[in-house]
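Dig into what follows:
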Amino acid sequence: MQEQQDLFPDTEESKGHENAIEETQIVVENNHLNVSSIQEDRKENYWSQFGLLIGMIGVGLITASLFSLLAVKLMIPHAKIFNLEKELFNPANASAMKVMQLGSTILMFFLPAFLFATISNKKPFTYLGFNKKISYQQILLVIFIACVAIIAGGLLSDLNEKIPISKHLQESFRKAEDEYKEQVMVIAKMNNIFDYLTALLIIALTPAIVEETFFRGTLQQLFIKWFGNSWIGILVTSIIFSAIHFSYYGFLTRVGLGIELGLLFYYSKNIWLNIFAHFLNNAIAVTILYGDKLQGKPLSKDALDDHFPIVLGVISFVILIYLIIRFKKASEVVLYQTTD
């Protein structure tokens, strides 16, 4: 019988193929190890960056506390520690409250963000999103978005109040809310145009600049890289942004505002548009209070509450989503022109 032929003869060519396959597998494994190593290095880098930011926040808190104590000592020399809160809420000491609010806000938020960006990047202001590439369409859309967001925020506020909680917690949160509004009323006491402009500076402009620089320019960018997901990064930043205001009944409203502002920065990469949107949100409230004052109405904490019909709130959400989509497209055009 004739010998059966070997179907797979051991030739030099077949050995060459086997060696090539083995080398390819080794390269793939090495690449996988390199990718894993890079990912681990990035995670460690993000942890170190987050630790650095926490350290800078500590510096900001200490500096802000020292500034506040110095301001009280100089402007309310008779104030005692045990009745300090009462003294600050006294309308006669409104100037001291305004100085404290202005200085402490800058030191608590802008200082840590700037120090972090300076250490982490050779161009800190560029890293934080301060650039001049803005279109008129973006500005116009931001105005519409800010106005519509106020109505949408009213719906979230109503939803927040409907969340069932214990009577004890309800009383505690109401007390905290009233104290916060009382503080705002002291700062927002406006007898003339100068007081109105001062209130705009302290309540609207300064928080817009420093909070957007910290939360969107710094924290959000770090979280998006850390989680590897823009939506998670924006949501986590928005929750922290809301929580830092210590307002339970305004929690969902500020989370919604944070998401809106987060998307504006993520799409535009321009912190000035965020500052403008945040300023409009606060400035509208200050202007309403000043308008009531001009009409002879007493300054009321209830003027800060936004309540709208549910149907109007739902419609505002639909319009808001549409406007943000338009803003995204307008920002893509600006960013494309920048890279050309």
The radius of gyration is 27 Å. Residues 18-120 form one domain. The chain has two domains: 18-120, 126-340.
